[in-house]
Predict the structure.
Amino acid sequence: MQRYLRRLSIAPLSLVTLYRIIVFGIVLLLCALAALIAGYNPLSVAYVILSVSFGTRDGFEGILLYFTPLLLTGVSCLLAFRLWIVNNGAEGQFLLGALAASWVGLHCNFPAWICILIAGLAGIFGGVLWMLIPTLAKVYAGVNEILTTLMMNFIASFLIIYCVTGPLAGSFSSSPVIPISLPLLWGNVHIGILVAFFCVFVLAWLSTYTKWGYELKVCGANTQAARYIGLPINGYLLLIMLISGGLAGLAGMLEVIGTVHRLQPGISNGLGYLGIIVSILARNSFLSLIPSAFFIAFILNTGIIMQTQQFNNAITLIITGLLLLLIAISDELAHYQFMKISPQRGGQ
């Protein structure tokens, strides 16, 4: 009996789940070790984190306020990845959505609900506009979108700085307070969370039960086969990439109108980049984005809680970076299995 290592095209869900549980265990052990080295009791730190996060209103509100934009940036990245498009530009699209919505919020003289609708459309348009250049470069010139979308993020960041120190200048390097705000559902949790859920459920339904979703799967699975049977590959690339940008822009609008209420540098707080991690955790499933986004939101909120315990805020970046690295390794390992073969005897 001989054994050889074979790579499977689709990783078994059982192996993926097992390896991810192991990864989470490793990350928890490393966090506990870091707490011990810093002179803290890991169990006491864990109790504080869990009791504040789920035992207090402010703690749970903090998780939900992170959860909303993470869910939208996650669905933005996942939708693009359905066609093997890596949207590294969700951060910049988020910022442009926030910028466009802020401009509308500061200059709109209509009733509040009309201004909110216009701001929402402006946020989507801002994200679409910022995705337009990488999209056209990808579709018509074959330029790799990984680089173009990433570079657009830096332009967006400097554009925000220019606006809050120039045309939209207020005080303390930010815009004036935006006079409109989203309706609140519970505490500081606004209606944007329902918008995020709506986007996820609609895309999950479309991708599962419609002809459009089936054709999208075919285009993502085998581009040559899709082109052979007459599917409009370039048309799908244009549509999906622009929708992806619009979703990230909508996340920026919800953040600035619903949570922060003013435009300021760093308003994205890395939520666009973290959307990539959320989409990776979801493993190509729109509905799985919900627990993935909640988990990353919990980690971000944990970082704030740990600052009150005299921990450095960089611990959040360390945890998310380590988690992404180990998950990428474990997901790749899940594709490999040892196979057993029996050597054939001569004459048989």
Remarks:
- The first helix runs from residue 13 to 37.
- Residues 144 and 257 are 33 Å apart (CA to CA).
- The chain has one domain: 39-310.
- Residues 39-310 form a domain with the ABC transporter involved in vitamin B12 uptake, BtuC fold (CATH 1.10.3470).
